[in-house]
Every structure is written in structure tokens, then in C-alpha cells.
Specification:
This protein has 412 residues and is of the alpha/beta class. It has 14 helices and 18 strands. Helices cover 35% and strands 22% of the residues.
Length: 412
């Protein structure tokens, strides 16, 4: 049975804003709305009105729950050891990673009765993800698998929360990238897509997207499910994380800023890769961005082109331009000196990264290889500096994603 999906009402949402959050969560597939006592004071929100939009899970944190929360709630979450009246879920938040035996001892020392169990720990190192899966198994054996929710929190917790979700009673997810209630939550949309596709048991293989700031990525919508959006800090070291995920994932799409590190980790001769494929001994890398870059070069239809930046996308442009017989120049950030640039360019710097102070265009065409909100941000930057943005992100994305699908399907 699929886990029930829980979204948390963020602090500061009240009145109509809180109601609209609940309505949106319901429309997008959430099963429960969590009201945390440490996020919302008594009288700050209309719990009864929220309950008419989505069933409420009232969570006691840092003091007794307001009476209005208790009256409106369909379920009540109280910490392990607190009074039992009305409680349907017992929770315990560890302040450090525990061994499975330690976790089991915590719960056996204060038997939770017939309620469901929610066990939360900081992830620690990537290797601790496998330990949490064992904790989940042992708690399920002792108290009944249908009653158990085990969650990891932390910057690297997201892929392990995806794996744990297959054996959890509840899956705590975020409505969007701005409403995470804990580090490591995945997005509601990704969890719903997996649920609608029939899910995957923990022994099944998965696909994922590795990147930083990827809440708006379209990749999870395009690829076969489950396809996990693994949003990581930009300084994450990939090798130890992917070593622990090897047994669970068929492969990964890789986006900024990890394409060069992924190539090094996979031992690829390519300077950057956007695709990782599982092998018996580790990972191999490929760069289907070259397919996307060729589509972009053809769309621009020029004999000469300049890349703004020298990251993973530029590595693909070098190969694509060589195949299409287009001359490519590269302009790095330190080489921008303030004179207005003319010609045709491709903006490869990550969206959100401030452009060099002296960057100016003289009515130059500047290709935007991002899409969605990221593309709009880049386009505004280009116009502000006197350039004319050219949207090619959709073509690039479709071509490289199709190439990834071919590679992953060949593994099956």
C-alpha cells in the first residue's frame, strides 16, 4: 500500500494564504495537512476551515496543542512518552544517528500502544542511509510494518527518504521548493507521480536527477517513474553518496553543478557527463547534452558561436560545433572586460549566478539553454545588458532527455 502523503503548513501562513495552501495541496494529491504546534500559535489560523479543505494531522511540538487544532484534526501526533488521549501517531526525533538496535530499544522502552510510529533521525553520512533502511525493517517486524514511518533529515537525506517511503505509512513531502519543513524532503509532485505509476518496492531499480536548485526541473515529468529529483548542496561530494545508492538506482541524469565531477567519478574520458549508468562495478558516464547542443546549434544557424562560460554545457557545445562545422569561441567570466559584445552567444552560466559586472551586449543574439523560471531569469539578464534572448532550452532538453532514455532502456 502506498504511503499517505503529508504536507506541512509553513510558518507565517494564515487566513486566505493558509486556505489556498491547503487547496493547492489537495488539488496536487496530498492526503493530509500537518499543523505543527511550534509553527502556528492558537488563534493564528482557522483550523476548522483548513480541515474542510484537507484532513488535518495536528503535531504537538514544544508545548500542548491548541484546543482548536485538536477539535479539527483527523489525526494527532504526540511525542513518545506524552499523554495518550486522542493520540493516533507517536513520534520520536533523535538528535544523532542511531544503530538499529538503539532505535528499537528507544521504542521498546516506552511501548507506543496501538498508535502508529514515526521515527526521525539525522542522516549522518551516506552510509547511514542503509542503516536507516534496516531500522525501518526491524521496527516493522516488532510493531507491524503498516504502522511504521522512518524518516531521514539532512542535506543528503532525500534519496534515502525516497527509498524509505516504499515501506512507510506516511511520507512527509513539500508542496514546492519554498515550503520544505525539513531538509531532505522530496516534492509532492514527484511522490504523486511515483504513486500514480504504481510505485516500486525497495528492491526495485530507480532513476534520479542529481543537481542543485532543481525544484523547477522537468526531468521527473518526462522519464519513467520512479524518477527522483535529488536536490543537493552544490558542494556535495558525489562518490560516497552514489556508492551507497548503487544497489537501488539504474542511473542518474546529472545537471549543474555536478557534470564535471560525475565524469571524474565515473572515470570517463569526457570532460563532463550528464548521464550515469549503473555497471556491476560502479558507474559509467555519457553526455547526451551533445544531442541537445547540436539541436541548439542548428536552431541558431550561424557559422561562428561564442559560449559564455566554460562548464559542462560548453563541453557539449565543443563537440556539437565540431560535428556541425561551426567555429566555437569561449568567453570566461574573467575575460569579460566591459566592452559591448556583438555576434551570437550561448549563455551557459547557471541561472541565479550573477553575471560578470562588465557584461554588455551590442544587440547580440544570446541563446538561453535553460527553461521555465530559470530561462525567464536569464532572459531578463540578457535584455538588461542590451542583448536579444533566443529560447532554445526546450529543444536542448528534449534532445538530451531522449538520448538518456535510449541509454537507460538499453540496460533493461
Amino acid at each position: 500500500m502506498a504511503a499517505r502523503l503529508v504536507v506541512t503548513l509553513p510558518p507565517g501562513r494564515s487566513g486566505e494564504a493558509a486556505l489556498e495552501f491547503a487547496r493547492r495541496a489537495r488539488r496536487e494529491g496530498a492526503d493530509l495537512l500537518e499543523l505543527r504546534g511550534d509553527f502556528h500559535a492558537d488563534g493564528a489560523i482557522d483550523a476548522a476551515a483548513l480541515a474542510r479543505e484537507l484532513p488535518l494531522l495536528a503535531a504537538e511540538r514544544g508545548g500542548e496543542l491548541p484546543r482548536a487544532f485538536l477539535c479539527a484534526a483527523a489525526e494527532i501526533d504526540r511525542p513518545l512518552g506524552s499523554p495518550a488521549e486522542g493520540t493516533t501517531l507517536r513520534s520520536w526525533h533523535a538528535d544523532r544517528p542511531l544503530t538499529p538496535s538503539e532505535a528499537l530499544a528507544v521504542w521498546e522502552s516506552c511501548v507506543p500502544g496501538p498508535t502508529a510510529l514515526k521515527h526521525v533521525e539525522p542522516l549522518g553520512t551516506p552510509r547511514d542511509g542503509l542503516r536507516l533502511l534496516e531500522t525501518q525493517r526491524r521496527l516493522g517486524q516488532r510493531f507491524g510494518a503498516a504502522r511504521i514511518t522512518v524518516l531521514a533529515v539532512g542535506d543528503l537525506a532525500l534519496p534515502f527518504r525516497c527509498l524509505l517511503a516504499a515501506g512507510n505509512e506516511l511520507d512527509y513531502v513539500a508542496l514546492d521548493g519554498q515550503s520544505l519543513a525539513a531538509p531532505g524532503q522530496r516534492l509532492l509532485a514527484d511522490a504523486v507521480r511515483e504513486r500514480d505509476a504504481g510505485g516500486r518496492d525497495r528492491g526495485g531499480r530507480r532513476l534520479g536527477l542529481l543537481g542543485a536548485g532543481i525544484a523547477q526541473s522537468r526531468s521527473p515529468e518526462r522519464h519513467r517513474q520512479p524518477f527522483d529529483r535529488i536536490d543537493l548542496p552544490p558542494d556535495t561530494e558525489l562518490a560516497p553518496l552514489l556508492a551507497e545508492l548503487h544497489q537501488f538506482y539504474d542511473g542518474f541524469a546529472v545537471t549543474s553543478p555536478f557534470k564535471r565531477e560525475a565524469a571524474r567519478m565515473a572515470g570517463s574520458a569526457l570532460p563532463a557527463v550528464n548521464t550515469l549508468l549503473r555497471t556491476p562495478d560502479g558507474w559509467s558516464g555519457a553526455n547526451t547534452d551533445v544531442d541537445g547542443a547540436r539541436e541548439a546549434v542548428r536552431r541558431l544557424g550561424v557559422a561562428e558561436l561564442t559560449a559564455l562560460g566554460d562548464g559542462g554545457a560548453t563541453a557539449a557545445l565543443r563537440e556539437a560545433c565540431a560535428r556541425e562545422q561551426v567555429r566555437l569561441s569561449v568567453l570566461r567570466r574573467a575575460e569579460v572586460f566591459g566592452h559591448a559584445l556583438s555576434g551570437t552567444f550561448v549563455w551557459t552560466w547557471p541561472p541565479g549566478l550573477a553575471a560578470p559586472d562588465g557584461l554588455r551586449f551590442d544587440r547580440a543574439r544570446v541563446a538561453v539553454i535553460a527553461y521555465g523560471e530559470r530561462a525567464r531569469w536569464v532572459s531578463r539578464e540578457i535584455r538588461t545588458r542590451g542583448g536579444r534572448p533566443v529560447a532554445i532550452g526546450g529543444r536542448w532538453f528534449a534532445a538530451q532527455a531522449h538520448g538518456q532514455e535510449r541509454l537507460w532502456e538499453a540496460m533493461r
